[in-house]
Amino acid sequence: MTTHIQHAEQLSTTTLLRFATAGSVDDGKSTLVGRLLHDSKSVLTDQLEAVEHASRSRGQEAPDLALLTDGLRAEREQGITIDVAYRYFATPRRRFILADTPGHVQYTRNMVTGASTAELAVVLVDARNGVVEQTRRHAAVAALLRVPHVVLAVNKMDLVDYAEPVFAAIAEEFTAYAASLGVPEITAIPISALAGDNVVEPSAHMDWYGGPTVLEHLETVPVSHDLTTCHARFPVQYVIRPQTAEHPDYRGYAGQIAAGAFRVGEAVTVLPSGRTSTIAGIDALGESVDIAWAPQSVTVRLADDIDISRGDLIAPADDAPAVTKDVEATVCHVADQPLSVGQRVLLKHTTRTVKAIVKDIPSRLTLDDLSQHPAPGQLVANDIGRVVVRTAEPLALDAYADSRRTGSFLLIDPADGTTLSAGMAGASFAAAAGAEPGSAAADDAEWDF
Q1: b/e map of 122-136 (b: 16 or more CB within 10 Å)?
Q2: Cα–Cα distance measured from residue 145 to residue 326, given in angstroms and rounded to the nearest whole number
Q3: Beta partners for 410?
Q4: Could you say which of 108, 178, 187, 228 has the lowest number of CB atoms within 10 Å?
């Protein structure tokens, strides 16, 4: 019992890293994930026994670690379109949430889903094939989603005799390409997932490599998702007014702090109305506190009675985002039905959902070579493109480059609630050079704004 308590206390003090893997079927991604789980002692005994039994029945002498994730891939092949398989594991140094994302072009939307919250992306490359279109596509998506750290795992080094020049050439080409897209940090690691080289344990076959193993890098990479250092943002989720004898005048605004920190006595602005007030109190877990920070769920009380409802945003008076009805963004289209110019949609941003019209689709991005296809007219499943959206009500949007939480949004089909596109507000490398928003479609009378 004591051991379990000590282990729980140890985990509570370790940091959390969210990371995503990307790679085509032939690059050995499933084997890498399986090796990572197996060698870090994150596989239950019965799971390993099942894998060993399945491997023997296939005539394999050694356990096929790729089978640890095969069931998840089977689920995806059965028609789960926007789902990502998540694996949770931990070492004494850090806890991990692994988003197992497919890498084929037809699953671009899956990779966007998995990488959108990741602090690190592991991009697999087959050492025999080098950097291919698929690799460039993965780097582009990571750059688009502002993933701070990218690991290039050059796999199957055992099939190229662990040759340093092969690794060096691939690493140089990928690093130059990813850096040109604005990826801030790239780490290249030569591995053999099948043999276990440089995944958890250092390789005895590559003494020319002096860097970290994959797990060592995952355990030591700086985790920069400290939301308390971002612009403070508090989307209101619910208004609490008990109106009881005990609390006759209580008016609180409940929600989860999206970013930054708030303090009692701080001057704040309520958006989109622009009304100002002062924080009179903050309630967290039934107790009053002087300060609260992301991602805590709290109730904020203001000094003035202001008309505030779900969807409003509370921000520091001296650091409030601009309010606009015209949203220019990059979107990844995730629905099977296309997104067209003139289409009526709902735009969901934090806790606020408003009517909107797609005014223009200036360009569609070709991830293979980053070329722009101007004025495509519509986006189909897995397309990434620039859009201009006009909303019926003003929104307090941050640029995605400044805040992944309050700079992202969803476009939703108003007819059935289907998610159409995932959007990232503001500029990105996908913006067409010299493209001007235009060719707006005529407004529908019912949605004329």
Answers
A1: bbbbbbeeebeebbb
A2: 21
A3: 348, 422
A4: 228
**What tens digit of pLDDT does each residue of 1-22 get?**
444 444 444 444 468 999 999 8
- Tell me the C-alpha distance between 381 and 398, whole Å: 26
Spatial distance between the Cα atoms of 436 and 262, rounded to a whole number of angstroms: 38
CB contact at 8 A, 359 and 418: no
DSSP 141-187: HHHHTT-SEEEEEEE-GGGGTT-HHHHHHHHHHHHHHHHHTT-SEEE
Phi-psi region of 311 (alpha: psi -120 to 50; beta: other; left: phi over 0): left
Among residues 446, 19, 29, 447, which one has the least CA distance to residue 199? 29
CA distance 420 to 315: 29
In angstroms, rounded to a whole number, what is the distance separating the alpha carbons of residues 361 and 349? 20
Extract the tokens encoding 349. 């941003």
Distance CA 347, CA 334 (A): 15
Q: Which residues contact 16 (CB under 8 A, 6 or more apart)?
A: 94, 95, 96, 97, 223
CB 256 within 8 Å of CB 228? no
